[in-house]
Write a sequence for this structure.
């Protein structure tokens, strides 16, 4: 191909591309969604601490206490056994042959035949009644203490609710963009970027503290999602 013809061809392609790019327009629309949900599950964390002589003996007795407590918690069918988990035992030497051993028990529960307030109240009472101070102690060489260190309501279906918020906000944004495309007689529309603008609350990490003295019913909460979406029109 002669050099002049090649240059002319390249020039035509460049001009055509420039015209095409000039015809493309980018706009942004905002999509907003909101849902109201009531926490449907809960979690209680109890710390069990043991003090006594000999690390191995202390840890053995601590495990016995833990197993007894787990039996008490599941006996009344307030919670399933697979929803009770424990941490590793952490033992520290205090002095000479005296040790302190600690283990964290985590109890997850949800609504079944009873509401969350009733279930949490029953679980808290079981832990309280199992405390060594409320029972006769025949072995004074070891001391044990139970304490609820955290109790809260939360959401079990977090991903489902987050997806619902996102999809609704995106749908609202798309409807706005399609309306603009129709008004301006654009032939095509393409989504090119999605940016999260704000959330009123963090659904993933939401926690409503349970009052240990008198567990309350969980309260309904509003969650929202705001998206900024960029579109390219032609």
């Amino acid at each position: 191909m002669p050099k002049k013809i090649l240059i002319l061809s390249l020039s035509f392609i460049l001009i055509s591309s420039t015209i095409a790019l000039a015809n493309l327009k980018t706009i942004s629309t905002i999509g907003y969604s909101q849902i109201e949900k009531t926490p449907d599950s809960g979690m209680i964390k109890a710390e069990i601490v043991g003090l006594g002589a000999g690390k191995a003996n202390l840890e053995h007795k601590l495990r016995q206490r833990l197993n007894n407590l787990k039996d008490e918690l599941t006996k009344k069918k307030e919670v399933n056994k697979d929803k009770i988990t424990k941490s590793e035992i952490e033992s520290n030497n205090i002095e000479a042959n005296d040790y302190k051993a600690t283990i964290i028990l985590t109890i997850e529960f949800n609504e079944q035949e009873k509401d969350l307030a009733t279930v949490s109240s029953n679980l808290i009472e079981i832990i309280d009644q199992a405390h060594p101070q409320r029972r006769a102690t025949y072995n004074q060489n070891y001391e044990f203490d139970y304490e609820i260190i955290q109790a809260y309501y939360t959401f079990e279906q977090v991903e489902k609710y987050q997806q619902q918020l996102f999809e609704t906000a995106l749908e609202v944004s798309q409807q706005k963009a399609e309306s603009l495309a129709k008004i301006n007689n654009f032939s095509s529309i393409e989504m090119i970027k999605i940016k999260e603008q704000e959330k009123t609350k963090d659904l993933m990490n939401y926690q409503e503290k349970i009052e240990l003295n008198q567990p309350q019913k969980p309260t309904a909460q509003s969650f929202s999602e705001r998206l900024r979406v960029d579109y390219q029109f032609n």
